Amino acid sequence: MDRSVASARWRSAALLAAIVGAAASGYLLVEYVTGQAGVCLTGSGCDLVRASVYAYPLGVPMPMIGLAFYLTAIWLTIWGLDARPLMRVPPEVALAGIAAAGAIASMVLTWLEAFVIKAFCSWCVVQSAASVALLLAGVMVMRTHGELMQGHSSRTRQKAARAREIERSSLLRTARAGGLVAAGAVAALLAVGAASGGPSSSADPFSLAPAGSPRLGSGSVEVVEFADFQCPGCAALAPIIANLASSGEMTLVSRYFPLDSIHANADRSARAAAAADQQGFFWEMSAALYARQNAWKDLSGADGDAYFMTLAGELGLDTAKWQTAYESAQTEAMVNVDRQAADSLGLTSTPTLFIGGAVYTGPLTADGIRAAITAAS
Prior knowledge:
mainly alpha; de novo design (two linked rop proteins); Glutaredoxin; five-stranded mixed sheet; 15 helices; elongated
């Protein structure tokens, strides 16, 4: 195959891989920023990944980093036809270099999803595949471009320059067409996500009890509670279900469902517990919030924040780390994932229990819940 043709084809392949990666990153970024539920081809995997501590490195949404990476790759792919060094590095070498860095980062993130988070985000997988394709194409662009430059005599340089102009025009057309298709696909996915109203509403144990949710006890039956820390009913139920879990009769899984419309500090208290969970103190913070509910429920925003920090200090947490987590977008996303799950299940009040995957409608007493656990086992 003619070296100029091979170079053009590999450059087009790199451009298309970068466009696919940018589209997946852009779609995820909209979900992260708006909190909108989206289309996930791996069940609740996208929600679990978004709620993990790896989704917001240094407080920056991971998809924003991915989008910047792929846009840079697109720019290098087209701009590289000028064959002018960037900071003394040929653009083809720069493209291959950032593609290698992106592929390594994608492999690390995929490993984390597989072995740490234990859930896969379908669009993260698309990004990973795009990064590997970009690496392959980027390396071949670097190789074929080098061969092409070596093969040009001084007499054919002008001809090569004209060929690059033609190739640039072709790449720009590809970029425009690919960009329009990608934008349409992202818009369609966002529309489908908005129409669905939220994550899957199937009440199976996996979607109800994500791996990252706080757990207490080792019983064979999981009892999932959607709770609001400012809810008096939740405060009354808390010691009952905690005792059942501690005695080994069940495994309690706690999920956040702050009812902001009726409880002014519902979201703040949920974030206080989620921030404590990141230091392994969820259940201590949960018990303290319920026990002192009357002390903080009517506090204003700043006073409430200060009270929760004082509570964190009394429990022995690192208050500086707790405050950083309390104010972070990552913690807010963790709360929002549970809120969206509750909304998708049609929940309107707290506390709501799921025992063995089914909604529990019996009395909120130790005997009533114990009977339901026995029936589910």
